[in-house]
Amino acid sequence: MVNNAIRDDLVAAERTFERSPVTIEEGLDVEDPELVQLRRACRLLAAGSSLLEQGYYTVVIEPSFVATERTIQFRLIHDGAMAPEEVISSHRRLYQRGATAGLYDERFGEQLADLWNHNRTKTYYRLGIATEEQAMAMSQFATTFHRHLVSTSRTKHECVCETPPRER
Asked: How far apart, in whole angstroms, are the C-alpha atoms of residue 91 and residue 115?
């Protein structure tokens, strides 16, 4: 049972999504679908980094996976291997599509899918508790992978990460 204040807040939240945007997050005010995916990945990496500093290890893992997937989607759209309006709801299919498009090899795509299946689900549903080491490793992987895929694109200047993309 919820009280009227909670119902009012729910309605207010619903209304904000129905209105025309007024105050838009800086950096995400782009219309190009590939840049939307790229910059969402940039923001997820920044959010994950901030949460890592605060010690929220379980939550860091989620944006690390999502940033990885947004970066793959950016490159798939950028390279013409995916239509902007296409939705790939299966994580495994997205990772496989990246391999098929030549962003990485099949083995790497399988490793991504396995990492997601065995570890993201485990921490997300609290079947296991994330550690600082896991959060740091996932954040580092997502950042390095993002930089690699962005640096090998023609639009690397569009990345809004605090550190410019570069190859390591």
From this structure: 11
Instruction: Provide the b/e sequence for 3-31 (b: ≥16 CB within 10 Å).
Output: eeeeeeeeeeeeeeeeeeeeeeeeeeeee
**How far is the C-alpha of 35 from the C-alpha of 158, rounded, in Å?**
7
Of 91, 95, 115, nearest to 106 by C-alpha is 95
Smallest CA-to-CA distance from 37 within 94, 90, 92, 111 is with 94
Task: Please tell me the predicted confidence (pLDDT) of residue 168.
Answer: 43
Per-residue model confidence as pLDDT tens for the chain (168 residues): 789 999 999 999 999 999 988 888 888 888 899 999 999 999 999 999 999 999 999 899 999 999 999 999 999 999 999 999 998 989 999 999 999 999 999 999 999 999 998 887 776 676 778 899 999 999 999 999 999 999 999 988 899 997 554 454
- The 3-state DSSP class for residue 166 equals coil
The span from the CA of 112 to the CA of 68, in Å, is: 9
CB 91 within 8 A of CB 113: yes
- Residue 70, token pair as written in the block: 């947004």
Q: Is the dihedral of CA 114, 62, 70, 38 positive or negative?
A: negative
